[in-house]
Amino acid sequence: xxxxxxxxxxxxxxxxxxxxxxxxxxxxxxxxxxxxxxxxxxxxxxxxxxxxxxxxxxxxxxxxxxxxxxxxxxxxxxxxxxxxxxxxxxxxxxxxxxxxxxxxxxxxxxxxxxxxxxxxxxxxxxxxxxxxxxxxxxxxxxxxxxxxxxxxxxxxxxxxxxxxxxxxxxxxxxxxxxxxxxxxxxxxxxxxxxxxxxxxxxxxxxxxxxxxxxxxxxxxxxxxxxxxxxxxxxxxxxxxxxxxxxxxxxxxxxxxxxxxxxxxxxxxxxxxxxxxxxxxxxxxxxxxx
Length: 289
What we know:
There is one protein chain. The protein is α/β, with parallel strands linked by helices. It is 42% helix and 22% strand. The chain has helices at 4-18, 20-26, 38-41, 43-58, 70-79, 95-119, 156-163, 187-197, 231-236, 244-256, 272-278; strands at residues 30-35, 62-67, 85-87, 90-92, 124-128, 135-139, 148-153, 167-171, 173-176, 182-184, 202-207, 225-227, 261-266, 285-288. The strands form three sheets. Strands 5-8-2-1-11-13-14-12 form an eight-stranded mixed sheet, sandwiched between helices. A four-stranded mixed sheet has the order 7-6-9-10. Strand 6 and strand 7 (148-153) form a beta hairpin. The N and C termini lie far apart (50 Å).
């Protein structure tokens, strides 16, 4: 009989072989990953996620990462003795908070992610909305201060990075339509609009939950796939509720604008990206037209 370690090696070989048709399917295609939540807070999970990104890049799948960093912004605000302010659940962003957000997101978080990708054998470029006027926004509501809604995404800087073999790492801030203004923007929305603007094959939102659950108390009630026509009924019946609503809305926006599929995945699960993309075992919620 084969030794136990031989069986383990055989099992690993089978897993790699079964990934072949998925690698062929997505070779040369682009996926956009919105990265945040627990996977971003845990150093171990962060390293695993970026390792997955490097692997995908090495087999010819082009990856764009869009990230936020609310907890990191709050941590920096606390260090200077400034309390975060919220209006109807949304962060109020004054000039000082915007400067801190810009420093944390574009100056620290984005560059840390790009550096980690490089350490793991990949190539990444740190970008933000004001770079080359990649993302432009207008003020959402004066009561929220410097919070913006995206009005335009220029795909050229992203495509230039991808064509050069780099993984763009994009922080969720935008330049204003008016000169000299920078806005804080929603990272989920930025990821959706970037995915649509570059003709991505998939949008993947890494979250802190399994996906959309029929009963939030039981993870085995995961809805593995849904179409756009099913979503209004699920919202009405409150299956989709609370913080899941804006995430689903971003997926809907991306799909309506031409992205074939959008996924909501649990970023706390090790290698969830690889399981979703390169195996038959879809582990999150997929939204399609």
